Amino acid sequence: KIQRTLALIKPDAIDKSPEIEKIILEEGFTVVDRRRVRLTRAEAEEFYGEHRGKSFYNSLVDYITSGEVLAFILAGDDAINHWRRVLGPTQVSRARHEAPGSIRARFGNSNNDFHNAAHGSDSVNSAQREIRFFFPDLTLEPVLTGE
Ligand code: CMP
């Protein structure tokens, strides 16, 4: 099934974006659109709204607003899970053990498990929400669903 997902290169990995983009293309994703932006604190709080109230919420907002991010709409077969596999586990140390070739293993911060270089939507609903968040003016045709 063809899906779209939102991929986000986080501020500390933006210098590695050419290498990460190369991986995106080698993995067979289609880049539907891309945008480089610096999020305001309010925007970051909205984007990560589901984590509001958690112990790490403020540090997460600090991290994601510390510089520019690069957002991509990726399309492809099973794109949501495919991109999450390419990312590897959320924690950098786990990614290095369990998925050494993954983006988080290769580009995540060795000194901070959660400064993990990149993000991917975790469901069809969050993909839709996150794509709209970064690309509010873009009209996309519905993806054909069918198993
Ligand atoms: P991401 O895939 O962008 O989704 C939410 C982010 O919150 C996650 O990657 C990490 O960067 C961060 N995060 C998740 N869990 C924790 C945690 N326990 N402590 C600090 N940061 C976290």
From TrEMBL:
Coiled coil: none
Cell membrane in keyword set: no
BP GO terms, sorted: CTP biosynthetic process; GTP biosynthetic process; UTP biosynthetic process
Any one Gene Ontology molecular-function term assigned to this protein's record: hydrolase activity
Residues binding ATP: K10, F56, R84, T90, R104, N116
Keyword 4Fe-4S: no
Domain annotation Nucleoside diphosphate kinase-like: ranges: 2-142
Primary location group: other
Keywords: Cell projection, Cytoplasm, Developmental protein, Hydrolase, Magnesium, Metal-binding, Nucleotide metabolism
GO cellular component terms attached to this protein's record: cilium
Subcellular location: Cell projection, Cilium
Active-site residue numbers: H119
Family according to the record: Belongs to the NDK family.
Protein name as it appears in the record: Nucleoside diphosphate kinase homolog 5
Source organism per UniProt: Cherax quadricarinatus
